[in-house]
Design brief:
Layout (H helix, E strand, L loop, with lengths): L13 H11 L8 H31 L3 H11 L3 H30 L4 H22 L1 H15 L9 E5 L6 H8 L17 E6 L5 E7 L13 H12 L3 E7 L8 H12 L5 E6 L6 H14 L4 E2 L8 H11 L8
Parallel strand pairs: 1-3, 1-4, 4-5, 5-6
Antiparallel strand pairs: 2-3
Helix pairs in contact: 2-4, 2-5, 3-6, 3-8, 4-5
The structure holds guanosine-5'-triphosphate and magnesium ion (MG).
């Protein structure tokens, strides 16, 4: 599936554009001096039209965007959706206005009395063009950066059954995603290896994507207001994708987080009114004390939990069968 931002044509940033226009102007010729100056102003107008198209496309993309992507835009830009829209609309008005100003110069050049006046007017038009862009269109560069970032986001299909793998950093989330889906995410021994949300698929009998599996960055046990951008991306997937959440606990000897911390995050996710399935990972290397503490606590919840080794594949198939069964998919048929 295509990411909705992929089709947006991204123009050059303001300074680059001003520089390029300035380079192109002397190369533009015409059938008369007036005609040449008019063509120069038309070049400026055409460049502004490109900004206008970019802003209009962005605005229409945003109007039909899934909340997961709108929130991702907010995280990436550190601005609210309303601020982004405000920025688009005010810049659109500014560009429209600038096109009108340049069009007036175009007619003034057509009515100028000699080549000297025509050239002077063209220079004045360029001065207006560059000063409006420099002083008033500050939002443009920010929006260009934002769209470039959004183009890199992976495509998530909100209508496909979804499994979101969540948990503290280093718990083995990416290892599990790599084992059960088509994704091959980066796995490493240090925390926060995964910095973006990634998507893999579980394929059906005809190799069609049947279920999507979402790999998320790790989250720490701390208030939402203290969470960094990377953690917020994980929370966005957990909250705004309509999926089953698999919460991984790390009970290995090298676990970096206490059972209390891991349970705090688990409880936070359970409060979201979603299906959250507790999964104890790394049982091949379990720390007996951590394991005992966790099992004692989990049995109080009266919910089914799994004990797996994502790395060695222990019990992974049982977990997968259980998850698919929630979507009414029988693993034997896949
Ligand atoms: N012993 C053992 N190690 C595991 C298991 N699963 C993952 N690991 C190891 O744990 C480390 C972290 O694995 P990742 O899959 O990158 O963990 P993650 O949760 O995606 O980590 P972040 O993206 O940093 O949050 C790696 O060194 C893995 O090899 C397991 O079942 N058993
Ligand atoms: Mg990871």
């Amino acid at each position: 599936m295509l990411n909705s931002f992929e089709k947006i044509k991204v123009p050059q940033k303001r300074e680059q554009l001003i520089k390029n226009v300035l380079n192109k102007l002397p190369k533009i010729q015409g059938i008369s001096p007036k005609d040449r100056e008019i063509r120069r102003v038309i070049l400026m107008i055409n460049e502004l039209e490109k900004y206008k198209n970019f802003l209009s496309e962005l605005s229409s993309t945003m109007s039909s965007l899934h909340i997961f992507y709108t929130t991702l835009m907010e995280i990436e830009s550190k601005r609210s959706k309303e601020e982004i829209k405000g920025c688009i609309n005010s810049t659109l008005r500014l560009i429209d206005n600038s096109i009108r100003i340049l069009s007036r110069y175009r007619y003034a050049i057509a009515n100028s009395k000699d080549p000297k006046e025509a050239n002077l007017l063209m220079r004045e038009a360029f001065g207006r063009f560059s000063s409006i862009l420099r002083r008033k269109a500050k939002c443009l560069d920010e929006l260009i950066d934002l769209v470039e970032k959004m183009k890199k986001a992976e495509s998530i299909d909100p209508n496909l059954p979804t499994i979101v793998i969540a948990g503290p950093p280093n718990a083995g989330k990416s290892t599990l995603v790599g084992r059960i889906s088509t994704a091959k995410p980066e796995v490493a021994y240090y925390p926060f290896t995964t910095k973006e949300v990634h998507v893999g698929h579980i394929l059906g009998p005809f190799n069609e994507p049947m279920v999507q599996v979402i790999d998320t960055p790790g989250i720490l046990d701390r208030p939402m207001s203290e969470r960094n951008e990377i953690e917020k991306k994980a929370i966005n997937a957990i909250m705004n994708l309509n999926g089953i959440i698999v919460y991984l606990f790390d009970v290995s000897k090298s676990s970096m987080y206490s059972i209390e911390e891991q349970l705090d995050i688990f409880n936070e996710l359970r409060g979201l009114n979603k299906i959250v399935i507790p999964v104890i990972n790394k049982i091949d290397d379990k720390d007996e004390e951590l394991y005992k503490q966790l099992v004692e606590q989990l049995s109080k919840f009266n919910t089914k939990y799994f004990e797996i080794s994502a790395e060695n594949g222990i019990n992974v198939r049982d977990l997968l069968a259980y998850l698919l069964n929630i979507f009414n998919i029988n693993i034997m048929s896949s």
